[in-house]
Amino acid sequence: MIDVFLERCFERSLEVAFVQEVTLAAQDCFDLHRIQWQGSLLARDGRRLVCYFRAPDTEAARFTLRQAGAEVAGLWAGTLHDAPGEDPSTANVLVERAFPAPVTLAAIQAIEDAGAACLQNHRVRFVRTCFSLDRRRMLCLYRAPDAESVRLAQRLAGMPLERVWAFRQVLPPPENSTPHH
To answer: What gap in Å lies between CA 53 and CA 48, rounded to an integer?
Structure first.
């Protein structure tokens, strides 16, 4: 099984309940193709969404999500990297990074380490990175007072960034509470 991420943008705002409803409606198809929804991050304004899945491979995820009616242009495989001692459920701000050429996780980490004081001064704590297998895309999760604190700390630290946004987590229901038909 691999980690697969789907990034989507919407013209109209989505609500947490809608994201849960649509995702759970596809559960039978997910089960058939061994796709496991791990959770989603919904922008506070409801117009950006990142969904995280475990899947046998990227094509199985692409096929299954397309069958469920999702636009899959923003689908990519990657790896998760958690900060030691940090709980991913505490994250509330996402930083999107795109690179014109492949980068190493170590190179980006070195820039962030050099700017650690900037993060600390703005009460920003790194929690998790989702790093694409092609090494050109990165989503970094932080715990912070707000998105502006992260944006400012990132710029002062010299970190590359494409977009910064606050989010709400949308999680699958506990195993025993999923209705079976």
So the answer is: 17
Arithmetic mean of pLDDT over the chain? 93
CA distance 48 to 9: 5
Distance (Å, rounded) from C-alpha 166 to C-alpha 158?
Answer: 20
Q: Distance between CA 159 and CA 47 in Å, rounded?
A: 24
Assigned architecture for domain 2-78+169-173: 2-Layer Sandwich (3.30)
Cα angle vertex 43, ends 42, 48, to 5°? 85
pLDDT band at 173, cuts 50/70/90? confident
Q: How many helices (H) and strands (E) does the chain have?
A: 6, 8
Q: Sorting pLDDT into bands at 50, 70 and 90, what band is 181?
A: very low
What superfamily would CATH give domain 79-166?
ORF SCO4226, nickel-binding ferredoxin-like monomer (3.30.70.3090)
List, in order, residues 6 or more apart from 130 with CB less than 8 Å away.
3, 5, 50, 52, 78, 79, 80, 81, 138, 139, 140, 141
Give the HSE-up count for residue 71: Cα atoms under 13 Å, Cβ half-sphere.
8
**pLDDT band per the 50, 70, 90 thresholds, residue 114:** confident
